[in-house]
Amino acid sequence: MRLDRFLSDTGTATRTESAKAVRAGQVTVNGTRPKSASLHIDPEKDVVVFQGRTVVYRQFTYLMLNKPDGYLSATEDSRDPTVLDLLPTELRRLNLFPCGRLDKNTLGFLLLTNDGDLAHKLLSPRYHVEKTYRYRCEVPLSAEDASRLESGVDIGDCVTKPAKVRRETDDTGTITVTEGKFHQIKRMFEAVDNKIIGLERVSFGGLALDPTLARGEFRPLTEAEEAHLRHAAGEQ
Ligand code: URA
Question: What class does CATH assign to 3-55?
Answer without folding.
Answer: alpha beta
